[in-house]
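User: quick one, sequence for these tokens?
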């Protein structure tokens, strides 16, 4: 075989590899924005003997969302926690791990993000479009449960934690925020989730995947990352992370903690917990710490004296 033929074969192989990389990245971008849905019915407030109301509301861009409003047992409360689930999860799975907060005297407001659970929509953005979902949920609470919206906190896990940090920066009236398994930036979490197991360098597959994601979303989600939102958080905040989290490295969690300017911030590292498993591994200690945080920082609103 001549040198010219060898060179042509080399060019052909290079072009084939480039085409394969583009194809793989294109397919992976669909996995990023279209996670599989899990049924909400697997967990419900009925299982925990909690009274609740199913609610529906729409986002500014017209996506219909569904949720549960669970009033605090034993009487009306002005303290409400808005709870935000992670990617590929739903409100039922989050309630399974957090329903104990109702027993502590808090109203709980769960909702499914778009393209998850029973909410409408087909596209998930791992935090960018989901900020609109939070805005709609908070607006619904204020307009329809005015008393319950007098003292509000946010709990988020993974993608939901990124939204919680966004919310804490946008709405300074929020009393406190708990952020669990919070990724540092959109680009890093896509890189870890999509290609880490293949030990793929940033170029070309990760960069190509992010390119296709931005193209399909018609926007760059990166500015909505916790990395850029956490400097706006002044409210009391608790970060929780597992030391075996392979999606959010502990170093990333510690960097996020360091960037937060809140004067009342704390971080708890759950030994032996991987991503999304802090409640399971932490057990009763987890429940005590989470309840204690909200008990300290989410106070019952003071009623004005009647003149």
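Assistant:
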């Amino acid at each position: 075989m001549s040198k010219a033929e060898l060179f042509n074969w080399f060019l052909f192989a290079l072009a084939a590899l480039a085409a394969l990389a583009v194809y793989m990245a294109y397919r992976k971008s669909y996995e990023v924005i279209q996670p599989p849905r899990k049924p909400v019915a697997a967990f419900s407030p009925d299982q925990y003997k909690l009274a609740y109301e199913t609610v529906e509301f729409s986002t500014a861009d017209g996506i219909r969302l569904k949720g549960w409003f669970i009033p605090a047992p034993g009487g009306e409360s002005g303290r409400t926690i808005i709870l935000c689930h992670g990617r590929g999860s739903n409100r039922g799975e989050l309630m399974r791990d957090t329903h104990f907060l109702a027993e502590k005297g808090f109203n709980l407001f769960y909702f499914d993000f778009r393209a998850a659970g029973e909410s409408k929509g087909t596209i998930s953005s791992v935090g960018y479009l989901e900020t609109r979902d939070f805005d709609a949920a908070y607006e619904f609470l204020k307009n329809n449960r005015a008393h319950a919206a007098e003292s509000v906190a946010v709990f988020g896990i993974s993608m939901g934690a990124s939204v919680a940090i966004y919310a804490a920066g946008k709405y300074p009236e929020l009393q406190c925020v708990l952020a669990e398994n919070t990724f540092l930036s959109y680009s890093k979490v896509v890189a870890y989730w999509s290609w880490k197991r293949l030990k793929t360098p940033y170029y070309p597959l990760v960069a190509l995947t992010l390119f296709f994601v931005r193209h399909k979303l018609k926007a760059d989600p990166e500015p909505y990352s916790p990395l850029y939102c956490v400097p706006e958080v002044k409210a009391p905040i608790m970060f929780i992370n597992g030391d075996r989290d392979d999606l959010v490295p502990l170093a990333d969690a510690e960097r996020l903690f360091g960037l937060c300017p809140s004067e009342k911030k704390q971080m708890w590292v759950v030994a032996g917990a991987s991503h999304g498993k802090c409640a399971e591994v932490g057990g009763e200690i987890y429940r005590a710490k989470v309840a204690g945080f909200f008990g300290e920082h989410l106070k019952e609103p003071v009623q004005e004296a009647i003149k």
